[in-house]
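Task 17 of the worksheet. Students: predict the tertiary structure of the chain below and write it out as structure tokens. Keep your answer in the requested format; marks are given for formatting as well as content.
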Amino acid sequence: MAGPDDKWDQPVEVNISRDGRVKVAGPFEALAVLTGSWPTEQNLSFVKPRSACRGALAGHKSLEDARREFAGAASEPGRGSSVFATR
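Model answer:
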């Protein structure tokens, strides 16, 4: 089970227009970004990474699965320039 201090091997850098560029180092931080700064409605681009990060914290998903879902959602085409991730 991952905890709040568990980190990914490589952080995901996201640019959120309201907050600027943020480095997200693990599932706990990703949940904070998703629930506090994510610029879109709660669609699949929100639900999938949120579920994966929650799963990693509960021990049902790997840390890297959560990272992949979060980075993928932040990099989705059609999101405009409000959010992007460097992988």
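Marker's comment: The helical segments are 27-36, 44-58, 63-74. Strands lie at 12-16, 20-24, 85-86.
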